[in-house]
Amino acid sequence: MDWSSFLAAGTDRAVRPLLPQALALMGDPAPGIAVDLGSGDGTESRYLAENGWRVHAFDGADGAEERASNGLPAELLERLDATQIAFEDIRTLPAAGLLYAGRSLPFCAETHFAGLWRIILESIEPGGWFVGDFFGPNDSWAGRDDMNFHGRTEV
User: Fold this and answer.
1) Alpha-carbon distance 109 to 27, whole Å?
2) Which residues pair with 99 in a beta bridge?
3) Nearest to 48 by CA among 16, 88, 25
4) At what angle do helices 43-50 and 18-26 cross, to 10 degrees?
5) For the residues 95-104, what does the mean pLDDT come to?
6) Residue 55: beta bridge partners?
7) Residue 91, Cα to own-chain centre: how many angstroms?
8) What is the value of pTM for the model shown?
């Protein structure tokens, strides 16, 4: 998929509600390491950095590094490390207290999902959180070979 136009259109959007809701549920942990898997336009990566997290952002689309840091004040740039990499090429992720994958995991091909999921689980520190979205088998995109879909029982 070519995500350039889609990502460019979202540069001024608000943070997706799932992330601040999850942070509120976490209580008051000292922000540590966060992974933003499928960081897209970088909105959530910047939000995490602005809220004290050290962020490792990963996205497969061209320009991932620039999008993640776009508009981030210079004093916060040291909290952000962005990498352009496709899901199928990820072999390891940093140990993290929070792994956020907002609307991104379904775009991992089914043939690579189990391996990526193992890497995700290995990266979440004890007591850490996974926050993310899955698409179900009734999604309008269900059946695509380049994506994955999970029902409630699978999740």
Assistant:
1) 34
2) 35, 130
3) 16
4) 30
5) 98
6) 34, 80
7) 16
8) 0.91
